[in-house]
């Protein structure tokens, strides 16, 4: 429970949630710890009101349903995108609930899943049924990072076999993007400042790794390694420098996808729009992934084309997660940290 921004959260016992009419209560089986939770904790997210329970990368079992729920029943194993659409606004009607005008976001707009139970609103059209053979820890790790990467690479970046893809930042989002781009048959350049993360990137299939700490011209190095630049580039970190590098390392008519969040005083970076015009570059945002796109991703996981369990980092208790959360800005974690014990 966060009582004050930037003050260490506390572990407390609170009343169990009741299902809203349009929602369910899920007993949390596992929930990922993410940099977005850190941003929320320090006060960067205007959706959060205090006191607050974070947690948005969850998987678990439905234990209660609201009176308007028809598709889901007690005992169903589910996950949910971190953005749940209302189902009624123009964007939801057009099939884009990830940019709904009236979003429900567990752990942001409402209390989240760093808890034994979480209430999920707008559940009818936003829950995702989990295959029986997908365990909760792996399902939680799909959370926002893997699913967000999937949408960024597959839907927004439209990566095709034989193309070059650059991934700037090899945290959870970046490593997921590398795995997904390789599964599609692309060549991948991974960029980070951390040697261990670059090693992991190579193990996941990155063809070229670039240590940006010791490379003065990162964009030039990527262009040199890819015969003039990549077709698709992702800023998977969310920083003015990685964003600009990601645009500048594109080949003519290349596609930049902004996945990492740019927040606080970094949210309006100066971009090389001269290059965007002269080379007809395309810039895309990517924000989560709609529930209706999950089956495509889950099918690739089930046939082994994607192995999100390879991105798992440490498993911790809810109590231990407090240390992980407050240290998230130090980028100590390797892979995705998941809470799998709540007592
Ligand atoms: Zn909507
Ligand atoms: Zn997340």
Question: Regarding quaternary structure, how should these chains be classified?
Answer: single chain
Please state the average pLDDT score.
Answer: 95
User: Class by helix and strand content?
Assistant: alpha/beta
Bound molecules: zinc ion
Biggest sheet architecture: 7 strands, mixed
Pfam family, one: ADH_zinc_N
Protein name: Zinc-dependent alcohol dehydrogenase family protein
Domain Enoyl reductase (ER): 6-339
Cofactor: Zn(2+)
Give the SSE layout.
Elements: E1 24-33, H1 35-42, E2 57-65, E3 77-79, H2 90-93, E4 117-120, E5 128-129, H3 136-156, E6 164-168, H4 172-183, E7 187-192, H5 195-203, E8 208-211, H6 218-225, E9 230-235, H7 240-248, E10 250-258, H8 273-278, E11 282-285, H9 294-302, E12 312-317, H10 318-326, E13 336-341
Parallel strand pairs: 6-7, 6-9, 7-8, 9-10, 10-11, 12-13
Antiparallel strand pairs: 1-2, 1-4, 1-13, 2-3, 3-5
Helix pairs in contact: 3-4
One zinc ion binds next to helix 2.
Keywords: Metal-binding, Oxidoreductase, Zinc
Domain Enoyl reductase (ER): 6-339
Family: Belongs to the zinc-containing alcohol dehydrogenase family.
